[in-house]
Design brief:
5 helices; elongated; 417 residues
Length: 417
């Protein structure tokens, strides 16, 4: 089932009308956040930005249409008040829309003659400084269409197109060209540049560590002794039936989804009896993971505590480097409903034999789904985890589509089962 990722790069909550998915219920994407919608195969619909209750720029999508291709475009037929783009995931060549539409609109408005401004009164709306805040429906105003074409022709769908016997504008019709097969759709909204960029809340996500040498005998850090419970850190719970030591690895370096995973120098560790809990204080700069023991394959709870965009904690569960049991990660800031990622059920014991791997400590786990220095990607494990857990609850095959767990107080709860 395809997914639609809607990223709001602006500093304010952005509401959207949803047609065709999400039971046709509107959504509001928080600032610097990505929301995910599921879309049935061969479904069609639109995501329309709202500005003070008025419809604006919209992303239109048909999944797996003619020839097995997606059809995507950006339309300003019903108005505009912000910048928006759409593309297929990991395929920049399919990008549609003008990422600086509003900036180009404001520049054109300042250069427009007084006659043009008079003709567009009631269709172009400005603030007290004379800067354009939004425009009304283009489809109802031929002069507005001509004005918008002066700076955005060929960049977005402007007119009504080929419809009702009309051939439409060829530059508009070109916006509806087929994409490349069927993939997830990436929609980016911004008051500034709406070109897609990896969100800061993914700065802790590691790259696949093919070149990292495996260190089999890691010297464990000293067991954690709880100290300051008021600062950033992790509320850690052991809900398994055996004593476990959990190790916290700060990444070697960090970027937006391209962090360098640390395999040989844990920052801290915490030993917990079955059913026990503790708070692990960590520096606000921490970006990395916590896992059972020091070996892989293993389940990773990945997180950072002070993201550069919102100074909140963000985290997720990853099975890319294997699975040695269930794990969840959750917010602790009182958010209602609470943000929770991961899963609680045992997916190891009943997994297909081809998905399993016996570690050097004798523990049978699920193999890496993306590959590392031990072996290549195990597709049997990946297929099993997609069936039993799903990409939305945990990273399985990398990429996107996994829910981001945010906690505004720079603290997250991690529970191992």
């Amino acid at each position: 089932m395809p997914q639609i990722f809607i990223t709001n790069k602006s500093g304010h909550p952005q509401p959207f009308e949803v047609h065709g998915w999400n039971h046709n219920l509107n959504i509001t994407v928080p600032p610097h956040h990505t929301s995910t919608l599921s879309a049935p195969d061969k479904s069609s619909g639109a995501i329309i930005a709202l500005h003070d209750g008025h419809e604006g720029e919209q992303a239109e999508i048909t999944f797996n249409g003619f020839g097995g291709n997606d059809f995507i475009d950006i339309s300003n037929i019903v108005g505009a008040g912000g910048n928006i783009t759409i593309q297929q995931e990991h395929d920049n060549s399919t990008r549609k829309g003008d990422p600086l539409f509003m900036q180009h609109l404001r520049t054109a408005w300042k250069k427009a003659s007084q006659q043009t401004k008079a003709e567009l009164r009631g269709s172009v709306f400005t603030d007290s400084h004379g800067d354009v805040t939004r425009i009304g429906p283009i489809k109802d105003h031929p002069k507005l269409e001509s004005f918008v074409r002066s700076f955005a022709d060929g960049k977005t769908y402007i007119g009504v197109g080929a419809w009702g016997g009309s051939p439409g504008n060829p530059h508009d019709n070109a916006q509806s060209g087929a994409a490349h097969g069927t993939k997830n759709a990436v929609i980016t909204y911004s008051d500034d540049d709406a070109s897609p960029s990896p969100p800061a809340q993914l700065a802790h996500r590691p790259a696949t560590p093919h070149q990292v040498k495996l260190v089999e005998n890691v010297s464990a850090a000293a067991p954690h002794k709880p100290a300051d419970h008021s600062g950033p850190g992790i509320d850690l719970h052991n809900k398994s039936h055996k004593q476990c030591t959990y190790f916290f690895y700060d990444n070697y370096w960090n970027g937006n989804g391209t962090a360098g995973a640390n395999f040989d120098h844990p920052l801290k560790s915490a030993k917990l009896a079955p059913g026990a809990s503790t708070f692990v204080s960590l520096p606000a700069s921490f970006k990395g993971r916590v896992q059972r023991g020091t070996l892989i394959p293993a389940t990773w709870a990945e997180f950072q505590l002070d993201a550069s965009n919102d100074h909140a904690a963000h985290g997720d569960i990853s099975l890319e480097q294997g699975c040695d049991g269930a794990c969840t990660i959750a917010s602790t800031d009182g958010t209602n409903p609470r943000h929770v990622g991961g899963f609680e059920k045992d997916i190891v014991s009943h997994a297909p034999e081809g998905a399993k791997y016996k570690r050097q400590d004798g523990v049978v786990v699920l193999a890496s789904t993306v590959g590392n220095w031990i072996a290549g990607a195990n597709n049997v494990a990946a297929d099993w985890e997609m069936k039993e857990v799903g990409q939305r609850k945990a990273y399985i095959r990398g990429g996107t589509g996994t829910d981001d767990v945010r906690s505004g107080n720079r603290r997250l709860e991690v529970t191992f089962f």
